[in-house]
Amino acid sequence: MDATALPGHSVPMVQDDEGQNVKRDFGAFLREYPTGEDDKPYVNEIDEMKERDETTMFVNYNHVVNFNEELANTILTHYYRYETFLRGAVRDFIISKYPQLERDDKDHPRQFYVAFHSLPIVDNIRALKTDKVGRLTCIYGTVVRTSAVHPELLFGTFRCEDCGHVIEHVAQDFRYTEPTKCRNSACNNARQFKLLIDQSQFVDFQKVRIQESADEIPSGSMPRSMDIILRHDAVEKAKAGDKVAFTGTLIVIPDVSQLSGSGGRTQMEMNGGRREGYSEQGITGLKALGVRDLTYKLAFLATTVQPQDLKFGVVNIRDEGATTESVIAEMTEQERQKILQMKEDPDLYRKMTESIAPTVFGHDEVKRGVLLMLFGGVHKTTTEGIGLRGDINVCIVGDPSTAKSHFLKYVTEFVPRSVYTSGKASSAAGLTAAVVKDTDSNEFFIEAGALMLADNGICCIDEFDKMDQKDQVAIHEAMEQQTISITKAGIQATLNARTSILAAANPINGRYDKSKPLRSNIAMTGPIMSRFDLFFVIVDECNEVTDYNIARHITSMHRLTDSAVDTVYTTEELQKYIKFARTLNPQVTPEAAKVMVREYQRLRQGDSSGLNKSSTRITVRQLESMIRLSEGLARLHCDDQVRPDYVREACRLLRKSIIHVETDDVQLGSEEQQDLQTRERAPDTEPSEPEAHTDSQAQPEDGAQPASVSYEKYRQVAFQLVHHLQSLEESEGDSFQGKTVAQLISWYLAENEEELADEAAVLREAELVRLIIRRLVATDGALLDVTSGTEEERFEVPEDDHVLMLHPNYVIE
């Protein structure tokens, strides 16, 4: 250690000549770089440090290489050895300009630090071996755990308990270190020292654990992790879930976890090979451990913390602190022009949709939903302080091999702060948060789960339907309130989980059954389903043209790889545009609000009528989904207002997720038709061939199978007829005597006149309605034949003259 770094030190120390040379050369670099230019960046940085009250000077390693390559190699190879001299050079450099910064508020010598960045090589965690101990290194990984910020003793001041001599500036080597011996020559004390806290120097300390990325793990290996030690200005710069690059050095520290067991590690002191008796006390701590007993472990002492997306050229589209001005300031002039050009493109929506997951053929509706999820809605806060979700949740349900997982993988790569997990292999604690015990300090702390790691990002959950019910319940709060409340082991906390969820699920029986509603096809509870803004059902149907195009697309991907994907916008252009658009907070216009109300009413009416037979009940959450999707479309067009067109497109997407149940066609002209026709004729008359004809889809030939109509068409016509009769009964009361078949047919044709193109269509529709009325009377029992006369007399009445009323026991669904 340099004696000049320890003011007031009375003990002579050996000078390190090489260290002094490094200190001199590094001081020259700070003062003179770049050579021959008046603008000195590190001289200007002193002013910024003074203004921000910081003690760390950030140095670009490439600048050192350009100034003095030999100095740069020395720092790279022996960083830990010369770190004290580098700090001394920074301290002298700063004090030369601002002498008042020499001492802190407690009149202690102020400590300054140096942090290098922009190293040419970035290592992964698996490459950190003992040969890199003491070298300047840059590593990166995902932060999975952060500790609280604690004070760390940097330089201790001790008082000898025997003679009272004060020993200053005892350096602490990653553990509590007392003086080996009292510096008073007349005193031989080597054990009895007291720490003077008010005269010692402390520094902020935080321990962070990082884990290597999944794409760097060799086959058959487990992910490696590493403890990162952060000090002073570097603390609180990394949060759980961040992908971060750390610059610093690899160090070796004692593994004291073996001392943290119940009661600690205790040894009896032996005297002359015999035990003195029960009065002897046990000795605890590191001093009681020999070289063979005490183990060591690797840790990384970091001075610089950089988000990985800034380091490796990936754009973080969900930067929490980004504003419109800051995003524009980060862009070059060429990038600004590109965003302006994209904004003015009238076909922007389609082009951006095609640029999402370009290796997937088709599925445009799913791509639109994923695109709007990336843009997101606007987060709001009520006057009571309650937050309203702005993130959009999307669920993709479909048959096997329909590219569901590919969408999840694409989003994981597109958004830097994203987490990919599987529902079957995840527990409730793994998805939310867990309380674990630190082996070093025996303290309980919160370890982030997938939703916390994806805070301000996107959490992709595959096999969502395979999650246990108790695990699904655990994410109710996270999906709507976007918080995680935990009360366990004396810890009570509410954590943020402001994330969008993109989930993929398979149908219960492997294939989607169109004859059943969505809730019967997947293993999800109603509360979970209502928290998804969009549901997309992908059904693997045989279609010759589609199958040909998909096969050609896949073979081209395997043959031509990158050249097979032709997108309008690159991934980087999409990321920059979305990052800029997410800084906008569009407002809903009065016209758009009216459209929202009207569309919501239509959805509710269609749901309550029973005709839509939709997959889920329409609730207020669907209205909020419509608002979020509309805001996402406004952001996509860089519009500061939500316009009616955006609302209509959002409602169209929402209707796509309200899957209509497909049922078998309704058979008309079956036994009840034959029976009714027989009753219309004399008993001795042989029944003739039925003359009823429907549209081309349902026309029977002579002697062919009975006519049929789609279930949706049958429900629509039946509902209109039944609702019309019910309205007449309510308006006319007891005076209502019913309506004839001809009157009902005429009323229906008049109501739907705009949908009938010509006279032939009118005749086909009239015959279809007549067949449906027959089924409502003979099979469904919805209508009651109240034609006057005896049964034999009614046989003589033509069919169109039969009088019908609504059955009193029939309830409209």
UniProtKB/TrEMBL annotation:
GO cellular component: MCM complex; nucleus
GO BP terms in the entry: DNA replication initiation; double-strand break repair via break-induced replication; mitotic DNA replication
InterPro entries: MCM, MCM6, Mcm6_C, MCM_CS, MCM_dom, MCM_lid, MCM_N, MCM_OB
Domain MCM C-terminal AAA(+) ATPase: 348-554
Gene Ontology terms, MF aspect: ATP binding; ATP hydrolysis activity; single-stranded 3'-5' DNA helicase activity; single-stranded DNA binding
EC number: 3.6.4.12
Pfam families: MCM, MCM_lid, MCM_N, MCM_OB, WHD_MCM6
PROSITE patterns from the UniProt entry: MCM_1, MCM_2
Highest taxon of source: Eukaryota
This protein's UniProt keywords: ATP-binding, Cell cycle, DNA replication, DNA-binding, Helicase, Hydrolase, Nucleotide-binding, Nucleus
Compartment(s) where it occurs, according to its Swiss-Prot or TrEMBL record: Nucleus
Similarity comment: family membership: Belongs to the MCM family.
Protein name: DNA replication licensing factor MCM6
